[in-house]
Fold this protein.
Amino acid sequence: MKIVILAGGLGTRLGDITEVRPKPMVEIGRHPIIWHIMKHCASYGFNEFYVALGYKGDVIKRYFMDYYAMNSDVVVDLKQGDLQILQRHREDWRVHLIDTGLQTLTGGRLKRMLPHLGDETFMLTYGDGVCNVNLHDLLTCHQQKQALATVTAVRPSARFGNLVLDNDRVTRFTEKNQIGAGWINGGFIMMQPQIDQYLPDEDVSLEQHTLEALASDGKLAAFCHEGFWQCMDTKREVDLLNRLWEQPDCPWRNWRE
């Protein structure tokens, strides 16, 4: 199955971090977050990727063009100008890097990718979030619901704890958690190519136009994921993901190095 990764946004909420690189190239544990997303997908056997490029897309292109050499032991013969690979490190991936424009909205980026995807089910996700969703279960749910799209619904962690008050007294304090949070779109969306019917032109938002229209027509299903999910919108969240990556039981690392 083909995986579309939207990787063209400006990432302005990360401030200085994205001045020299696009958001998907922000590193978590020495690897850009897009690598983590791909490793997760590949662990389920989904290893053909279509990356929708935009802002600083050349940085992403260069990363994958140099990936083989940069992740292997090499000998460089400066006199002869030769390069010898000593220990090869290969990912069983095929990565298509497609320029979808600098200012293109998310729906427009998807519309530009559709001619490359064929007529089978594909998955779309964003280049700025990780989770431990079971992609086989997600695909099965999508097939059973027979919807045009099935979104992975997640509960984001609350930023703050909750206070229950009785006049000026706190009767209950609860630390921040995901229990009481509402469901949101967590990415990892299974789609049928007929979704093109809901992309009238390239000047549309996937979230504000396409998914809303699908929901209105009863053609959008949900796969509720109660496990780990975390986006990377702020410096604080970058730091959080780096701390989690260093833990032996990192919640989204389901592959062997």
Summary: The mean pLDDT is 90. The longest strand covers residues 2-7. The helical segments are 33-42, 57-65, 67-70, 106-113, 135-145, 206-216, 235-245. The longest helix spans residues 135-145.
